[in-house]
Amino acid sequence: QVQLVESGGGLVQAGGSLRLSCVASGSISSVLSMGWYRQAPGVQRELVATITSGGLTDYADSVKGRFTISRENTKNTVRLQMNSLKPEDTAVYYCYCNAITVYGNRNSWGQGTQVTVSS
After folding, report:
1. Measured at the alpha carbon of residue 99, what is the angle toward residues 97 and 101, in degrees to the nearest 5?
2. How confident is the model at residue 73 (pLDDT cuts 50, 70, 90)?
3. In terms of Cα–Cα distance, which of 114, 30, 20 is closest to 70?
4. Is the sign of the CA dihedral 108, 27, 51, 78 positive or negative?
5. Is it the case that residue 25 has pLDDT exceeding 90?
6. Average pLDDT rounded to a whole number, residues 41-64
7. Sign of the four-CA dihedral 6, 106, 72, 93
8. Which of 10, 21, 29, 40 could be cross-linked to 91 through a Cys-Cys bond (beta carbons 3.0 to 4.6 Å apart)?
9. pLDDT at 112 over 90
């Protein structure tokens, strides 16, 4: 199984910055992709950003130019640098990992970390 441990959420004023980190561990042979999704109250979970093992990235239109995803392959770690935060970025942010494990291909989710942006 794959365990994901997230850190870095919190409360910040609009225009501020936060950095989220997520470390994957467990019976991992290789990590194919990692990323971040978010879910605000009453809203469906949505993609924020993802990154493949080769470094290809994908961002939601709403965060392009403000958020940057990066990855340390050797440490199975993914980070999300969030700048120019807006109140509408307030949500629970979930780390995501798609990995090859001893049990086959697995999709895993973290417990979530709260990001609150005050106006």
Report:
1. 135
2. confident
3. 20
4. positive
5. yes
6. 96
7. negative
8. 40
9. yes
Instruction: Report d(CA 12, CA 116) in Å as an integer.
Output: 6
pLDDT at 98 over 90: yes
Residues 6 or more apart whose CB falls under 8 angstroms from that of 8 comprise 18, 19, 20, 21, 113
In Å, how far are 58, 69, 80, 107 from 86, measured between CA atoms?
20, 18, 15, 29
Interior angle at CA 62, CA 55 and CA 99, nearest 5: 35
Tokens of 18: 């936060």
CB of 29 closer than 8 Å to CB of 104: no
Q: What is the dihedral of CA 56, 60, 64, 68, to 10 degrees?
A: -50
- Tokens read off for 115: 């990001």
CB 5 within 8 A of CB 22: yes
